[in-house]
């Protein structure tokens, strides 16, 4: 993918009006505020603290899944462009393995719920929003190009994966679905990981604004000056992380769970997120 | 698991094995062995079908480089309660063994405890240790895997404290890594992985955020995993207590906070539970746990239960 195309795809994905369902998720922030954790520091500080702790834990637990799922989808058809049905079936099987592991590692029902809702929304976005419209002016030559064949294969993959989720054969968690979407669009792994963390942080800032704990200008200030170095740092920290549940490629390193595996790093965040539904009144779903 | 003949003079350090079987109405150890620095002790108890093992380490703690590997096999209908008995209520992880010169041991090395447990139908494991206290700069890995048959039960408590408050230690260890995996009939139902360690570098212009700041204002975190028919009573109690909570907006964090989530959820059922607790004081968390798990008294007996939360 050339730079211009990649930049355009980034613009699309970073659009805050993209229907991904993230606007109803606060990833535990609403509960954090309700439990009085934001009261001890000035608003800018407490918002930054929450973003740091939440982002660090999310990066450590979700990026390995983004990495592995992206690799599964990006390697489809990379040999000679042709994607066979058996390749798609194999890829779905890997995604299922990743979803299963993520499900058993996400031990908090509120986070699981939010992850599945947003995951499916991303797949729907791909099949309904990013596939080529069936209008006459979009169909060019009779012979479909390599690129079109690839797009058709990706659409098939996403549709089959969605079907598997509807049949409850797999869960369709956010990190897996995000990787499927970005890999299907041809976004590089590095961009995909960075953007995923950026969107996590940005949705926390939007949630702060909706909760009225931060003003809209302060949120922009943090987005420019705090979120960038934080996302960069976490993306770097988690570079070598893998899930360890699908076969490593031959040149991959020796996998050690305690060093390279996903982990929760903020137990307080887990407790607060799980207590979301206990709030007397709430505006978010997580 | 394949067992190999032990050659004289080549006994691995820190290795232990427990095999428990039900004979008539009593739980009997077919094997109970351990090598330094691991030490296993079993007190005589009265409860039918229940046995207790104390997992002890020499000198009251573990040091950098210590590797403990314990395998546990629990037969059909037998219940094993695993406790620790450490001085002043927690398993200590030292960087170096007290009294030993730092240079004589691999002080920079990680301390590691691994445990593999298999439980047959109707059997149960109750892992109710003291919390782990990692001293300043200590690194600790704990990896525990539980393979349960259908109808087996498990109560797995895993908790960690901020350090020695008297010495001003507050989350000042280098690393605490804990992995608990529960597999039921070959299917993984939970893989709880927690890693507490200092972040390496600064993030751009922002000051480094310490582990202590991240975990404040609490100085003890506990996780309890519950599975199987023998935990029904505990789950009923916890569900009722959790349902009664309503969070109104407050201005300061509570001194103790807990959450409850199912391990496996489908549209039709919820199986197993995970409880997480955070408390400003370790004693508070201990009292909360002793109260929350009280229904286990009917399963393992009051006397045994009391040994767990002394």
Descriptive notes:
Chain A: This is Urease accessory protein UreF. Chain A: Keywords: Chaperone, Nickel insertion. Chain A: Pfam families: UreF. Chain A: Belongs to the UreF family. The complex is a heterodimer of chains A (about 290) and B (about 300). Chain A contains 11 helices and no strands. Chain A has about 290 residues and is mostly helical. Chain A has one domain: Urease accessory protein UreF. Chain A starts with a helix and ends in a 12-residue tail after the last helix. Chain B has one domain (about 15-200, about 210-310). Chain B contains 5 helices and 18 strands. Chain B has helices at about 210-215, 230-245, 280-290, 295-300, 300-310, and strands at about 15-25, 25-35, 40, 50-55, 60, 65-75, 80-85, 90-95, 110-120, 125, 130-135, 140-150, 155-160, 175-185, 185-195, 220-225, 255-265, 270-280. In chain B, the strands form 2 sheets. In chain B, strands 3, 4, 5, 7, 8, 10, 11, 13, 16, 17 and 18 form an 11-stranded mixed beta sheet that branches. In chain B, strands 2-1-6-9-12-14-15 form a 7-stranded mixed beta sheet, with no helix packed on it. Residues about 1-10 and about 100-105 of chain B have low confidence and may be disordered. The interface between A and B is large, with 51 and 54 residues.
